[in-house]
TrEMBL record:
SUPFAM superfamilies: E set domains. Residues 2-82, 84-173, 175-264 form the IPT/TIG domain. One of its GO terms (biological process) is carbohydrate metabolic process. Coiled coil: none annotated. Pfam families: TIG (PF01833). It comes from Kitasatospora aureofaciens (Streptomyces aureofaciens). This is IPT/TIG domain-containing protein.
Length: 264
């Protein structure tokens, strides 16, 4: 009697996965071979009702699966090879320790189930098309440096994408801090004020905001000296005390007493 396949699992996937064939008359390890597409493989386990084997590489698209027992072929069941996803770009590719949603572009996203950000964590994506998904990166823990670049890795039924370098990395930024302002008093127009702190990396703005609230005014002639220091000129402001706050992709430094400048 010819062997009969009643089901295979999975019905789609990628090389290296284990497939299980269920049916009748499926033989034994000594009598059974499995054919998938153009490949013939030896089962890992085999019994009269079940056969398992590692899905081979070298095939694509639809590949028919049959079992051959002592030279007699079974009916066939269709398996679909799914290509591994690829990541080509991110938007945005930078953000704070607790980012909002980002867009990931690439290929093979139709069956995407998770997106990993190196050891920081994984997130479940929203698949928008085979080439586009949206995902909220997991929150970053304590920083050991001002930035941390994480490879974005997409997993699907076709496998796992490979790192591609900078184009496929999301960069977490630590929040900047201001620890001192020298001098911390003077008239509007004071030049060469030195602001020190941490993580003055990719600074997008430095502002003066009235203590207690109010409209912010950009500082004049900001010049970065290093990761922890910058100089600026005081803009035209009314008399009063202001928080000098620094903004980078990680956010805006907290308002603290150490960042005060008093316009006299």
């Amino acid at each position: 009697m010819a062997p009969v396949i009643t089901s295979i699992s999975p019905t789609s996937g990628h090389s290296g996965q284990t497939m299980t064939i269920t049916g009748t008359g499926l033989g034994s390890l000594s009598t059974t071979k499995v054919n998938i597409g153009t490949k013939t493989v030896t089962p890992t386990t085999a019994s009269n009702t079940s056969v398992t084997f590692a899905i081979p590489s070298g095939c694509s698209g639809q590949a028919n699966v049959t079992a051959t027992v002592s030279g007699v072929n079974s009916n066939s069941s269709a398996f679909f090879y799914v290509a591994a996803p690829t990541v080509t770009s991110l938007n945005p590719s930078t953000g704070p320790a607790a980012p909002g949603a980002i867009d990931v572009f690439g290929t093979g996203f139709a069956t995407a189930t998770s997106v990993a950000f190196d050891a920081i964590g994984t997130a479940v994506p929203t698949v928008l098309s085979d080439s586009h998904l949206s995902v909220t990166p997991p929150a970053h823990g304590a920083f050991t440096a001002c930035t941390d670049a994480a490879d974005v890795i997409v997993s699907s039924s076709g496998g796992t994408s490979s790192p591609i370098g900078a184009a496929g990395q999301f960069i977490y930024y630590a929040l900047p801090t201001v620890t001192s302002v020298t001098p911390n008093t003077g008239p509007a127009g004071t030049t060469g004020v030195i602001v020190t702190g941490t993580c003055f990396v990719d600074v997008s703005s430095v502002t003066f905001t009235p203590v207690g609230g109010g409209a912010s005014t950009p500082a004049d002639n900001v010049s970065l000296i290093g990761v922890g220091s910058l100089t600026l000129d005081v803009p035209t402001l009314a008399a009063g005390t202001y928080d000098i706050q620094v903004t980078n992709p990680g956010g805006t430094s907290a308002a603290v007493a150490a960042d005060h400048f008093t316009v006299v």
